[in-house]
Amino acid sequence: MLTGSCLCGAVRFEVRAQFFDAGYCHCTRCQGRTGTGSSVNGLVGARHVAVVQGADAIHTWQPEGGYPKSFCGTCGAHLFSGVPGGDGRCGVRFGALDRDPGIAPTYRQWISSAPAWDPIPDDGLTRYPGGRPD
Q1: What is the phi/psi pair of residue 56, to 5°?
Q2: Listed residue (49, 42, 46) closest to 15, CA to CA
Q3: pTM to 2 decimal places
Q4: Averaged over 94-108, what is the pLDDT?
Q5: Tens digits of per-residue pLDDT, 114-133?
Q6: Please, are residues 113 and 28 in contact by the beta-carbon 8 Å criterion?
Q7: What band does 65 get if pLDDT is binned at 50, 70 and 90?
Q8: What is the rounded average pLDDT for all residues in the chain?
Q9: Residue 48 and residue 92: Cα distance in Å, rounded?
Q10: Cβ-Cβ contacts under 8 Å for 131 (sequence gap 6 or more)
Q11: What is the CATH number of domain 2-19+40-106?
């Protein structure tokens, strides 16, 4: 089991299964919410992610045509995409985890949106111009 939290500690969560995939996202939504050129996320069944503290501090934005994005309303730390404890899958922001997730990213998606000021390294990861196919 992995644990994680927001920056201020108001929200704590557990990931109760292994991630089945991980990757970098270079979409403009990830750029806007992180202030960086990409974000790194682990994918796991949503039913395996449990908020154990501070559920009332979580705010969620649902972009048109996209997964819900959840963050701490106190410190602004981004935590998930998808719905923890729900159906489907959940993307967990690696930066919110307390320790090594036990999986390394294997792909980069939305590279067509990567900003010129943050060049994508030649790291051998599979690249997708848009979203990674499910």
Answers
A1: -70, -15
A2: 49
A3: 0.91
A4: 97
A5: 999 999 999 999 999 999 98
A6: yes
A7: confident
A8: 95
A9: 11
A10: 27, 109, 110
A11: 2.170.150.70
